[in-house]
Amino acid sequence: MRQILKSIESFVRQRWVNYVLILIGLALVLVVVGNVVYRNWSEFQAFSWQLNPLPLVGAGIALVIAFGLNTWTWHLISRAMGSQVSFWKDLEIYSFSTVIRRLPGVIWQLVGRTYMYRQAETTLAVPLWGSLWEIVAQLSSGILLAALTLALAPQLRAQFPYGIWGLVLLIPIGWLILRPHDVVSATKRLAPKWAGGPCLTWRDVSAWAGLYVLSWILGGAILYFLICAMRPQTGMLFLVCVGLVAASSVLALLVMFIPGELGIREISLVLLLQSYVSSPVAVASAIMFRLWLLLGEALVAFLVFLIARGGIRPAQTEQGSG
Fold it and tell me: Which residues span the domain enclosing 179?
């Protein structure tokens, strides 16, 4: 089993494989979006493409708050993994890894974290185990919100082949949160070199998952504001947006090791949003959401990274001169 995983890892790391998978994802997005545009061409022609700038301000504020919340969550995770670095150092590392994770292949985020924590003379358990539990917290909180949305939204249940049975997704959540040591044991069997993992309690994982619930809600707020920038909406759509962002992000996390994630997030958002908004708004908001996260997150991360570096260097210089 370990040999198979190692072979898959070496294959996916090849540059040409990364670019081929990205192109496949882009092609899938273009096919789905193109099909939606083709079937609703008259609606697209009649649509008035104007943006209200005020909701865009709200989307920007929500993105900044979400970034800060995610940074704080990562700081709590790194401390639980045994890190002794300050919050500002964690902020610097998180910002740096956020910028480079957009490179083809998810491995770059882990490489960036590993390099910077090694520079800070911190054990490798922090970036390795920390990144694993970050994914666990994101998945469990996202599945929880997606399942709740599925239970409360009849329009969405009608689009799923198993309807209310989608609530069985709550089962792995309970397992991940209540028995974190099982995850540690399973990971050690697959990767023995990761021996010596952290001793976590359900309270630790529950706290991280709870913070990511807030993060998904802010993600839903970003999508809601982007939609409102094109057409005014009722407050009920906000709850739907939270669930759709969580659901599409969970799907993207499940294929996160595939460069470009095959466009899963954009495809699912376009298809699911059509039950609540017009096709032009569904397509435009899904594309805007992706670009908003891509450019906005990179800008915020870059600015925070520069501020953190400026705040840390004097202390380091003073310590070195002493």
Answer: 2-41+52-321
